[in-house]
Write a structure and sequence with these properties.
Fumarylacetoacetate hydrolase, domain 2, binds magnesium ion, 203 residues, alpha+beta, 4 helices
Amino acid sequence: MKIICIGRNYREHARELGNPVPEDPIFFLKPDTAILRRNRPFLYPDFSSDIHYETEIVIKISKNGKHIEPAHAHTYYDEIGIGIDFTARDLQQKAREKGLPWALAKGFDHAAPISSFKAKTNLPDLERLHFHLDLNGKTVQHGFTGDMIFPVDTLISYLSRFITLRKGDLVFTGTPSGVGPVSKGDMLEAFIEDNKMLKCEVK
Ligand code: MG
């Protein structure tokens, strides 16, 4: 399986990092070794001193597809979760300055903690979902999927023109504003609506 992540899908987040609002979706990949499951702790890596959290709604692809029409995209996922797109902001900044890929800044081991998944039928409409992240008990990010620049079905349709989607693939749908650094000892807790879905201690 693969992990496809969307960059700059919320205007306020694009602004906070000084990026223009994109005309087409921006995406990048993380390897499957980035996944961190079952609320396991995240070990702060020695190659960065500026790891940031980015909280994102995650879609699990339920069947293989290519050239998916936007109107059919919703039939390609049944389950929704939440994840953290951990980013080594210092490595990313260096890569950006040189016009180099973000692979190391985004794809390192355990850079993708994910929750368990819920059937979409048990959640409010995907285009009207609220989610948030608490850092040490204080809410630091709040997202509303209705604010996405490119809604999920548009993303799936666009992506599938280039990359075949397979059952089990994960799509991180972009982070709202409020990203920031983590330190050893921090506790991150991610919620969809009022359901605590994911807990991740930084060690
Ligand atoms: Mg992200």
